[in-house]
């Protein structure tokens, strides 16, 4: 398995390296805009979310969906590679790229937003963590649909569903009883409610990855 999976992973990482750096750079620009207090608070937020979703959607479309559209998948599957190996290679490459960008931007966000006494109250740390992990859940859902369906239409629909769901979730979250009382506190409070949400999000990510392998293995016509 290793002999064929890692060359496929390296191929995708090479393709995605420059675009992913560009999306990361856009995220840094958003954080710098927030620090410099340029424009309204909405502008850095929109740029930051755009960078996150760009880093999520671009790799999936380029290395999964477009491979079928451009007949690259036909060539790849002509190699001595199984459906499981192909799925694993795509999972590793896409998850690695997005995790690096998402992780780096998240760390930068926390370092800047909660540094010192003049930033966001530290009571918002659990809330921010849940929001950032919600982006990862949305990404995993889009990746799962992209791998299973390999269709521009289905992938576009998944992006729409993920975006609307994330928006509704972010609108509901500040009123959650496990978060609302602590948002303005000077220290982070990891309530039972906050931990439950984080655990549910983690289970969703693992479940979506598992469901992808299950559905891929049941395909009768991979090409």
Concise synopsis of the structure shown:
The chain has seven helices and no strands. It is mostly helical and 223 residues long.
Please characterize this protein's 3D structure.
This protein is mainly alpha-helical and 223 residues long. The chain has one domain (2-217). The chain contains 7 helices and no strands. α1 (2-36) runs parallel beside α4 (83-113). It is globular, with a radius of gyration of 19 Å.
Residues in helix, %: over 70%
- Name the average pLDDT: 86
Distance between the termini: 20 Å
Note the overall shape.
Answer: globular
Strand content: under 5%
Structural domains: how many:
1
Summarize the biggest pleated sheet.
none
Q: List SSEs in N-to-C order.
A: HHHHHHH
The oligomeric state is single chain
Supply the helix-strand structural class: mainly alpha
Radius of gyration: 19 Å
Count of DSSP strands: 0
